[in-house]
Amino acid sequence: METEIQVATRKFKSKEYSEFKEIIQKNPDFIHTGGKMWFRQAARESDLEALSLLVDLGFDINQPDDLFGPPLASAASHGSVEVVKWMLNQGAKIDLS
After folding, report:
1. Tens digits of per-residue pLDDT, 48-58?
2. Helix or strand or coil: residue 65?
3. 3-state helix, strand, coil in the chain (%, to 5)
4. Number of Cα atoms under 13 Å in the Cβ half of residue 91
5. What pTM was estimated for this model as a whole?
6. pLDDT of 9-44, one tens digit each?
7. In whole angstroms, what is the distance from residue 69 CA to residue 82 CA?
């Protein structure tokens, strides 16, 4: 049986964003648990709709990932120029030191 966060991840991966949003609104801590993974996926796919949804749901666009560093660095190495520009417009910091 799937846990609620696994259902959220499945909904996110299948781009069922309205169902994903409902789950996150009921379980706001999930944005901190799965947010980094979801954000990386959306950045790799240049999915601005998903990125915007995550930020609207409370994902910290400057929260570093233990493996991949700041989201902006991850997006720059895996995402598109469009994603990087969007992130900078959303307040992503270039230097987090």
Report:
1. 999 999 999 99
2. strand
3. 65, 0, 35
4. 8
5. 0.88
6. 999 999 999 999 999 999 999 998 888 889 888 988
7. 20
